[in-house]
Amino acid sequence: MTAGTPAVRWADRLGLGEGIRAVDGRIVLVDILTGRLLSGPGDGTAPLTEVARLDTPLGAVAPVHGRPGHWIAAAGTGVCLIAPDGSPEWLARPEDGAATAMRMNDATADPQGRFWAGSMSYDADEGAGSLYRTGHDGSVTRVLDGLTVPNGPAFTADGTVMYLADSAKGVIRRYPVDPAGGLPGAPDTFASFGEGSPDGMTVDDEGALWTAVWGTGTVHRYRADGTPDRQIRLPASQPAGLCLDGDTLYITSARHGLAAPGPLDGAVFAVRVEVPGPPAAAYRQGSAA
Q1: Alpha carbon distance 160, 150 (integer Å)
Q2: I need a labelling partner for 206 at 20 to 30 A (CA). Which of 25, 76, 124, 224 fits?
């Protein structure tokens, strides 16, 4: 892999590839609308391996600390635990019975081991979405509402700052977070987009934010002070999710919604970058320790 030049990983072309994470020395990701949790084999030309399949859309997962093979997931209308055999145990379904049909979207664990997940309507109705926080005790609490298409969130290493994109609004907001109580404060606007939509995000070891920009075929890096730093261009128009595995940036893309997808739309890409990033945080069930 040449530094700065994206390379295609694995043979699959996904419908809506997102939620990519570096977990326990491997890469996992989802194909949202098919409900599949997938893992990338060491052979970068082989197909992705199916880890689990739900009968509902699957937005993103995080590993469960101390329980190998277990995942917490933003799926369907809520949050569930997925056992090694793929069976779900629902913690809550807060979007059941909503006025418009809803599904969970992107999600991540924070450094303190809580799980944060956004919801959106299938038709991306303005203001219909929310952000939910799952505590160590499994309780699921709505912490933000009035969102349209929430993506991310992504946290700084100490958990005191959360970045959250509202893709439909073309904006990334930066929230202060009380790391002890897990409450987001009043946000400021970190970045705005006149073209394309910010989507999946991750924070590197310098505190800089990477974001996929749907519709532009690009990934952007912003320094911690909000200064645009660099862009990577991809041979796919809809980059969606990303993660850092050391100094390798992995990027998912999507074919969904394209009238005439190109040969690399829906592919997963990898590119070497100068600043590494940490693996995905785990959800800590029952304890913050």
Answers
A1: 19
A2: 25
Whether the Cβ atoms of residue 272 and residue 265 lie closer than 8 Å to each other? no
Catalytic: which of 106, 199, 204, 245?
199
Check whether the bond before 153 is cis (ω within 30° of 0). Answer: yes
The question of whether 199 is a catalytic residue gets the answer yes
Tens of pLDDT, residues 32-74: 999 999 999 999 999 999 999 999 999 999 999 999 999 999 9
Q: Do residues 19 and 60 make contact, with C-beta atoms less than 8 angstroms apart?
A: yes
Structure tokens at 48: 């992705």
Residue whose C-alpha is closest to residue 243's, from 36, 12, 40: 40
Per residue in 26-50, is it b (16+ CB within 10 Å) or e — as a string?
A: ebbbbbbbebbbbebeeeeeeebee
